[in-house]
Amino acid sequence: MEVWTLLKANIRHKKGSFFSIVLLMIIISMSLTAVLSIRKNCRNSLIHAFETVDGANLTAFIRADLVTDELLTSLETHKNVERITGYASIATRKVEVNQAADNNCWFLQKLRPQYRLLTDDLRGYQKETPALKSSEIYVTQGICTKMECNIGDIVTAHTIAGSYEFTIRGIIAEPSNGASNMGWKQVFISDADYERLYAEGAAAETEEKTAIVQLLHIHKTDDCTLSDGQFKRQLNLETSVVDYSFGTITRDASIHYTNLFPEIIGSVLMVFIGFLMVVVLIVMGHSISTGIEMDYVNLGVLKSQGFSKGKIRIILGMQYLFAEIIGVVLGMILAIPLTSAIGDIFQPITAIPSENRIAIAESVLILTGVLLISVLFVTIITAKVGRISPVRAISGGRAEIYFDSRVTLPIHKKGLSASLALRQFTANKKQFIGLILIVSILVFFMMAIMILGNALNSKSAVESMGAIYVEVDVNFRKSLQDEEYEQLESVIREYSEIEKSYYMSSLYLSLNGEELYCSIYRDPEMIPGIQKGRAPLYENEIVITNIVAEELGLKMGDKVIVSHSGEKAEYIISGLNQSLNDTGLCFFMSHEGAKRLGDMVISFAGYRLAQPEQREQIAAALNAEFGDFLEANAIEESILDGTYTMAINAMKAVIYLFSVIFSLVVVHMVCSKTFLRERTDIGIYKSLGFTSQNLRLQFAVRFLIIAGIGTIGGTLLSVLGAGSLLSTLLRGIGITSFAVSFRTMTFVLPITLICGCFFVFAYIISRKIKSVAVRELVTE
Amino acid sequence: MKKSILSAKGLCKSFAHNGGQMHILSHVDFELYEGDFTVIMGASGSGKSTLLYALSGMDRATAGAVIYQDEDLVAMSEKEIAKLRYTDFGFIFQQMHLVSNLSLFENIVVSGYLNKAKSAAEVKSRAEALLSQMGISHIKTHLPSQVSGGEQQRCAIARAVINTPKLLFADEPTGALNRKNTIEVLNLLTELNQAGQSILMVTHDRKAALRANRILYLEDGNIIGELELPPYTYAEEKSRETQINAWLTSMKW
């Protein structure tokens, strides 16, 4: 009972600290619950969508003529295969919608009844999916995001048999390839259109030109304990199905790729939330420590009245734990609308309406862990209660612990407020170490997010991380001779110098039985992102990514077997790189090296221009001059799709907003404590002729000094650790060595924002100084 | 003919108390004269300190006026009052109230630095002189917590006069000191007064009151008696003491 009485009194007396902790925990609990819920919802929604359409564990995209009875029999009789369903489709060479073009394959299929149409607001599913009429098409939301199109727009599908126009009639949920970040797409047309396109495609098909592609849906048996990836490897070893395919995707991989972006954003936010939790612990530690100092006499009196140190520690701990629990509960409630709002941001990417459920069990589990950590922390911090002596406390023990040190930096007439602020800081530096640490953490994270944004919008940074950026791309319809490449370049040079030219092709090849995306370069020295070793200059060499090396246990100098359509060859790993292709699960070889696996054609060229503004004219000139065997396209300036940019900007905004709120709360808590602690000094300064304005400025300058030192720490942390942090977080998309590029704004914005916030907040919060009267110094 | 330096007219001060008003000062009228060492005495709760704080502008009167150089302190803005504190007024507290994270030297100069009329070098030079005069030069780099109460109070006196104030206010400056330190502090104040410094001091210590040439007696917020004395000399201390004791007895002290 006595504990409860004192607890109530403490909370009443320290409302500011109590509500500050509640607010901080609301932010942490709300964001943590929202992130966990969104991750779970995205995954569950996709799994549910797979179940609805009877999605296979493995989908193999195989030229129709390679789907032999022998292959089908070997698959059907495999011990881990329950059933196979084949769906023929018409593969496009290129698709155009509005002004956008997509050179990735779209697979046009007959509409199957289990595929569900999204409602007009895209938040749910319609009860029935109406049959399509002639020249109508259902596309996924991911396509609409990528191609910036909508219902009613015209889709022009170019196949080897000709070009066909369709009107988008609705948005459909296709879980396997529907996300905006997936290259290939599965779309649905009317039965009549399909039959017509199939007949015309089959007639136009030659050995070099593929029109009809079988989508083999392979389902695992229920008792198969292999993961989808293991299942694929096992199946390929025994049936070579992957070797015969020009692409495969497992259900697990599809879920991974579809949810990649929410997962990455979630990971970044989870790390940020983790840092915020550290901030909360520091704030609590500071608040408890200074609280014990301020209440030294009261605590001594309590001890003299028979309160044990354990009881006092329970009272102190309970008041913070109580605030945390309230914050956690309120945060979880507030996470409900937040989860829905953030889910809406990701849906254009994942293309599946997300559930709006709260991951209660996971959130409660993690937040309970967080509370336990803070209980442990409070237990450690309150240990100093044991050192309070009732006698010393009552006889003015506080004086002994007030002003822990003195650094003899002189005070000056010029800049008197600043030099006094500096003295107040140096005299209490222990009190402010926690605050400096908090600023360092916030600034580090703000800078890391700036660095991420900079890199994803920088051509050179993206290239150094293994992506290529071109202003003009060209798709070849035949194999070109060297002199023809030179002719192309001479046409381009009439408009702009060429900074870089890439001649390449790509396909899925089996590396030691693992199907991986392979990029084949005519000029292997152009392979981007090499970090160790060298380019595969000889025909028996390849470069693999760091991720492939780790996944398959390979290193430089190892020999590997690469196979394709029954052909096999041995290669030596000459180098390691990083690449964004297929989230880093890829490898590279020269064109000469690829020829060892059969007749490989260079099918694509990309040009990086010295005058990018000439891209449109160059594409037009190439099409005009060489239109019979190539198709050139001007590539838009932006590196990232608008939705991705929006999501990254949203994440940046969240991190900046939380940093500002945390700054406000932290400054409020520390400022209030400092004010109470220095109330007498404030009165003395006033009696000497300092105005409230002078003293408020002193307060603000002191917090500016703290913020300044903290930002130096944060900047150093960023320079030393931002690359490692981002590499760890972005490993999921293939980045193993993040190319950190600093710009002026990388430093200026976070430093200005945090220092500005600290200065302004301290100035505002120190308005209480006005209420200090010199009369308080009177001893009656 | 004495020259008035500060005057109180109908000065009142009340505090809210138990839902009503408690009147501490009731229509106090008096003049302070240049060069005087004036002491206010009275029983506990008579309003001595309240009067001192109201006169010095450290606290605002509820009604009435405090006229200094034709300006009413009661009507002054915070900025104007603040300026008076570092130009014309000095103040000594009973509990010294030195800034705990500044050395004794810094405690003295900080007030001088506020005064734009003086250069930093002038302030430092005067601070050194005052430290020497107060006998605390050897401990000028010490923090207040590292010196005795008497040394702290001498530092507080030096701080109060760093800007050569026209009027020095002292609220029981010896109230927290032992006998030896009390005498030292009173000697310093006497020295200052003999050098021309006008002083208004509140005290309940008869020994301290000996140093004054004018004593006012306050009761229930009103000045009910006044005693004029010749300037203090050590030789006449005994006879002054007798005179003051008799007067205080007549005031029912």
Mind explaining what this structure looks like?
The complex is a heterodimer of chains A (780) and B (253). Chain A is built from 25 helices and 21 strands. Chain A is of the alpha+beta class. Helices cover 52% and strands 17% of the residues of chain A. Chain A folds into 4 domains: 1-56 and 257-402, no CATH class; 81-220, no CATH class; 410-457 and 640-780, no CATH class; 463-634, Barwin-like endoglucanases (Beta Barrel), CATH 2.40.40. Chain A starts with a helix and ends in a 15-residue tail after the last helix. In chain A, a hairpin with a 2-residue loop joins strand 7 (154-159) and strand 8 (162-171). In chain A, the strands form 2 sheets. Chain A has an 11-stranded mixed β-sheet with strand order 4-3-7-8-6-9-5-2-10-1-11. A 6-stranded mixed barrel of chain A has the order 13-14-19-16-18-17. Chain B has 253 residues and is α/β, with parallel strands linked by helices. Chain B has a single domain (35-58, 78-250), classed as Rossmann fold (3-Layer(aba) Sandwich), CATH 3.40.50.300. Chain B contains 8 helices and 10 strands. Chain B has helices at 48-56, 78-87, 104-114, 120-134, 149-161, 179-194, 206-209, 237-250; strands spanning 4-17, 20-33, 37-42, 63-68, 71-72, 89-92, 167-171, 198-202, 214-219, 222-228. Chain B has a 6-stranded mixed β-sheet, sandwiched between helices. A 4-stranded antiparallel β-sheet of chain B has the order 2-1-4-5, covered by helices on one side. In chain B, strand 1 and strand 2 (20-33) form a beta hairpin. In chain B, helix 3 (104-114) runs parallel beside helix 5. The radius of gyration of chain B is 18 Å and the shape is globular. The model of chain B has no long low-confidence stretch (mean pLDDT 91). The interface between A and B is large, with 37 and 42 residues.
